[in-house]
Amino acid sequence: MAVKIYHGDILFTPSADRLEIHENSYIIVEEGVVSQICEKIPEQYQGAEVADYGDKLIIPAFSDLHVHGAQYVQRGIGMGCLLSDWLNHYTFPQESRFQNMEYAKNCYDAFVDDMLRHGTFHANVFATIHREATNYLFDKMEEKGMYGYVGKVNMDCNSPEFLTETTEDSLKETEKYLAEHEGSKKVKTILAPRFAPTCSKPLIDGLGKLAAKYHCGVHTHLVESLWEAQEALNLFPGYGSDAEIYERAGLMDHGPSIFAHVIFPTEEDKRILKKHGSFSVHCPDATVNIIAGIMPLQHMEAEGLKIAMGTDIAGGHGIGIYRQVARAVQLSKLKEFYEPQESKTITITQAFYHATKESGSVFGKVGSFEKGYAFNALVIDNMEDPWTKMTAEEKLERFCYIGDDRNIKARYIDGELLEQEF
C-alpha cells in the first residue's frame, strides 16, 4: 500500500463552527486518502516517504461551485454594469466566440490552469451552448486530474440570435453531450439551463427528461436579481417560485441541484431547496459587481440550507476562492449593519467551511482532512512577517485576505504532487 506522510501546521473545518488545527503534526495518506493525523509518526509507518513542510500551513484545496469557464477572458471588464446590460453588452457576444475551437481551446486552457494555480481543484462549470467546445473543457479538466461538473448551456428564447438554439437542437445537442461522457469518473456532466428567462417551458421539461435518462443534476441561476426573479414568474405563469420551475420539471431528482446566488429567495424557494438538499452558491464578488444584493447566508444556513462558494467568473473578477472567503465575511458585516434584525456576521471559520468541506461534498469526500477524505491539499507559505510568529488560524485568515497564488508552495490531488509550472 502506497503511504505518504506530510508534516506541517494542518488545518481544516469538520463543521461550520469548528476549526480543527494540528500544529507541528503529521498527516498520514494511504493510496491518496487521509488515514490519520498525529504528533509523531506511528511505528508502522517508519520508513515511509515524508514531505516535511516545517511550519507551513497545510489546508484542503478549494471548491468553486459556480464559475463560467467561457467568461474567463472577460474577468474585470464591464464591472460598471448591472446584470442585464452586462450580459447583453459583454457576456453574450463573448460566449458566441466559442463556436471557434481555436479560441475556445486558448480560453479553456488558461482557465483550467489558473484554477489550479489558485488552489481550486474541484469546480462546477458553466460552458456555452457549443457542444464541441464544452467537450474540450470537460476533457481538459479530466486531463488535469480535477474533480468537476461541466454543463453545456441551454438558451432557446429571449437571447441574442447569435446565441440562441432552437428547442429541438438544444435538447439534441445536450443529449449527445451527456451520452459522450457516460461512465466518466471525477469529472461529470450536469444540465445547465442558463436561467428561466432564457429557457422555454418545453426546453426545461425536455431537460427534465434527460435528467431522468442520464441520471444527472442541474446547475443554473436562481433569484439572483429582482429582475430575474420577476421575469422567471412572468415567463412561467402558474408557478409559485423560481425554484418550482426546476422542481416541476424533475430537474432536482436525479443528481446534485446547484443554484447560483439565491439572493432574493422566497419562503417557497427555500422550502424546495431544503427538500432536495440543493446547494445555494454565494458569489460575493459578483454580488457587488453586477447583481447588487447580498445572499442572506447566515439566515439560510440557520434554516438548514446548504451553502457553497463560487467565484462566478466573470461576474466576479478574481478566480481565487480564498478571496471569496474573506469577501463573504465582509459582506455579512454590511448585511448585519443594514439589516440588524435579520442578519449576523459570519466567521472566517464558517466561510472557509463553505468553501472547502460543504462545497466539496458535491464531489464526494473532498474538502476536509477527516479520515477517508482525499488528500487534495495546498501548502501555504510566507504569511508571517519575519520578526513575529502567527498561529495557524491567523495564517489562514491572512491568506484569505491578502494572499495569492504565490503563497501556494505545493498542490496535491489524490496525494499526488502537481508538478507543472505555475
From TrEMBL:
Pfam families: Amidohydro_1 (PF01979). Its cofactor is Zn(2+). It comes from the Bacteria. The keyword Lipid metabolism does not apply. Gene3D superfamilies: Metal-dependent hydrolases, Urease, subunit C, domain 1. InterPro entries: Amidohydro-rel, Metal-dep_hydrolase_composite, Metal_Hydrolase, Metallo-dep_hydrolases. Keywords: Hydrolase, Metal-binding, Zinc. The keyword Cell inner membrane does not apply. Residues 58-417 form the Amidohydrolase-related domain. PANTHER family: GUANINE DEAMINASE. This is Amidohydrolase family protein.
